[in-house]
TrEMBL record:
Residues 49-196 form the FPL domain. InterPro entries: CLEC16A/TT9, CLEC16A/TT9_C, CLEC16A/TT9_N. Residues 371-398 are annotated as: Disordered. GO terms for biological process: autophagy; endosomal transport; regulation of autophagosome maturation; vacuolar transport. The keyword Transferase does not apply. Residues 241-396 form the CLEC16A/TT9 C-terminal domain. It comes from Oncorhynchus kisutch (Coho salmon). Keywords: Autophagy. This is C-type lectin domain containing 16A.
Amino acid sequence: MFGRSRSWGGGQGKTKNIHSLDHLKYMYHVLTKNTTVTDSNRNLLVETIRSITEILIWGDQNDSSVFDFFLEKNMFAFFLNILRQKSGRYVCVQLLQTLNILFENISHETSLYYLLSNNHVNSIIVHKFDFSDEEIMAYYISFLKTLSLKLNNHTVHFFYNEHTNDFALYTEAIKFFNHPESMVRIAVRTITLNVYKVDNQHMLHYIRDKTAVPYFSNLVWFIGSHVIELDKCVQTDQEHRNRGKLSDLVAEHLDHLHYLNDILTINCEFLNDVLTDHLLNRLFLPLYVFSLVCPEQSEDRKINPQVSLNLLSQVFLIIHYQPLVNSLAEVIFNGDLSVFTQHKNTVSAGVRRFTKPPESLERSLELSCNRGASEPRNAPNYKNLGEEEEEEERPGGGEEGCVFWCNNRLCVLV
């Protein structure tokens, strides 16, 4: 079907029926005569793009020849050309809006294949938009979310390139995981969950090897920083004047836990291993649990014990991934403080700490994707986070070292 060729004659006169192949031919003629965006034709191009989208949606249900023509004339290239001319926010917003409407309303898988087949969509995804513009940001992240809803074992190949290890739909989306606008953060979570649910082993291994450590390390830091802000609100609001802010912070923490639980209950084992390691060694043990057991005067205690106990209760109520819950409960009920032992100048020194990743997620993704393919590993290599401790032999004495997750159980390196 994709290789089918037809002769498209005429079509240069405006037609009365806007929902027709003839009208699409006329719209194509308009595009060919206005390849450069100017002040005089800007409104015309916006209306043309809108009309083309409307015709494609109609053609999806009524006339397959519409998509034949759209593909043969490579009309998506015109959209991309207009976008790359930096023709102003008005055109940019309208283009993103119409693309979002188009992919939301396409129902036939064959039509979707037509739209994705020439890789122009990925070019739009990686385009350098002005994300300081709230409206552009909103339409862009909505566009990515709409695309993620179309992911399955067949369509994922249009977005994930196994040969080049490139998955722009996912990597561009997660860069906004900590965006100040909550609706953007929610959209990012939806996109990641839609990606993780696709049972494509090559794609999932790419996520594990190239993006999981940068993303999860930055995610747990973001969650932990939010917890510290929550604790400060509790400690400084003695007269309960900021109850609204505190309520929002608690609700946000619950959202974080529900998101983590959603990831874990997808049951992608190797992603769960990486996430469980980060949650135990970078968040729950060093921040939540340690705040319960460390001396009150300790500089290492980041949050109040009462706040920590409340947050841990939320963890046990919301997260249902049994291996993680069991391991966390085992540490708490056994009361073994050796899991918090710090060994300086050793490999384990940087593992069990609540620390900020040394690089932004965007920079970490760039470095990770430029490395050679990593070997599969049971536990994450936390030195990927940028810690520079020299590898020296552990001092004697039989003290426990780092806690890590391996083969569905909590292990201690001795």
